[in-house]
């Protein structure tokens, strides 16, 4: 963010609108003190950490709809999730008035939905993505990693191992169908409960054709014990096997 703006505002907010019934809103990790120390060392100028009643004065009458994009993949497993995400993001953009907004690549479908909203509603904010940050074992950083015990943490590596297998297949020039098969081969033999593994268009999150050529987004979601984790990687596939 600092490379693109002279003032950096970081928002820390657990948004109730994006949690569905039976999800982990109440126990979702809240580490504001640690976040503030980290942000101070990183040089953030302002931290905006509002209470829920500062953002929502009662139940919102109007919400932003993510449309069909919000009903695929994560949206199919978490109905209404992306409507809640877009509603709070638009509110925060109105409150903070940024020129640039930075989002993590880890939540790739969220990133696609935010970009679509900003484009379609002429919000006037440049949306940038930063690469997924990973721990030393390759597992993508996530607040929900705190739920994992030692054994589950080892099992969670299946997601990044699937990404590595798909990446190797893509770099070897294999077609999209084989790239996807490389990933599903890993997850099928892992001790995780898979929600989905798919190779999709990064903008629409629709599945790409078996002979697709160009950028593609590998997206994964799986339960490791009681914890649901997601991960993804942007790949380039050639459309046909290199000989």
The outline comes out as globular
Beta-strand residue fraction = 15-25%
Task: Outline the biggest β-sheet.
Answer: 3 strands, antiparallel
Broad structural category = alpha/beta
Radius of gyration: 19 Å
Helicity, in percent? 25-40%
Got a strand count?
Answer: 7
Q: N-to-C terminal Cα separation, in Å?
A: 42 Å
Would you tell me the overall average pLDDT? 95
If helices are DSSP runs of H or I spanning 4 or more residues, what is the number of helices? 8
H and E string: EHEHHHEHEHHHEEE
Strand order of the largest sheet: 5-6-7
Show unreliable segments: none
Protein described:
By secondary structure, the protein is α/β, with parallel strands linked by helices. The protein is 34% helix and 19% strand. The protein has 8 helices and 7 strands; from the N terminus they run E-H-E-H-H-H-E-H-E-H-H-H-E-E-E. The chain has helices spanning 32-42, 52-55, 74-77, 81-96, 108-120, 150-155, 157-171, 176-188; strands spanning 9-11, 46-48, 100-104, 126-130, 193-200, 214-224, 227-237. The strands form 3 sheets. It has a 3-stranded antiparallel β-sheet with strand order 5-6-7. The protein has a two-stranded parallel ribbon with strand order 1-2. The chain has a two-stranded parallel sheet with strand order 3-4. Helix 4 (81-96) crosses helix 5 (108-120). The model has no long low-confidence stretch (mean pLDDT 95).
Give me the secondary-structure topology.
Blueprint lengths: L8 E3 L20 H11 L3 E3 L3 H4 L18 H4 L3 H16 L3 E5 L3 H13 L5 E5 L19 H6 L1 H15 L4 H13 L4 E8 L13 E11 L2 E11 L6
Parallel strand pairs: 1-2, 3-4
Antiparallel strand pairs: 5-6, 6-7
């Amino acid at each position: 963010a600092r490379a693109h703006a002279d003032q950096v505002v970081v928002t820390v907010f657990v948004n109730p609108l994006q949690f569905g019934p039976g999800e982990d809103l109440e126990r979702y990790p809240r580490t504001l003190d640690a976040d503030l120390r980290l942000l101070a060392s990183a040089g953030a100028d302002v931290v905006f950490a509002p209470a829920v009643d500062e953002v929502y004065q009662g139940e919102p009458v109007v919400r932003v709809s993510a449309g069909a994009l919000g009903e695929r993949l994560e949206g199919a497993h978490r109905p209404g999730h992306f409507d809640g995400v877009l509603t709070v993001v638009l509110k925060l953009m109105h409150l903070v008035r940024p020129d640039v907004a930075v989002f993590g690549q880890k939540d790739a479908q969220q990133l696609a939905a935010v970009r679509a909203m900003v484009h379609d509603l002429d919000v006037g904010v440049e949306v940038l993505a930063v690469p997924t940050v990973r721990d030393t074992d390759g597992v993508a950083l996530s607040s929900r990693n705190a739920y994992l015990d030692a054994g589950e943490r080892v099992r969670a590596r299946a997601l990044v191992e699937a990404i590595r297998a798909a990446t190797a297949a893509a770099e070897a020039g294999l077609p999209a169908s084989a790239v996807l098969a490389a990933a599903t081969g890993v997850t099928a033999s892992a001790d995780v409960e898979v929600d989905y593994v798919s190779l999709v268009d990064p903008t629409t999150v629709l599945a790409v054709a078996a002979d697709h050529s160009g950028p593609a987004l590998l997206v994964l979601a799986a339960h490791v014990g009681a914890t649901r984790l997601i991960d993804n990687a942007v790949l380039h596939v050639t459309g046909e096997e290199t000989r």
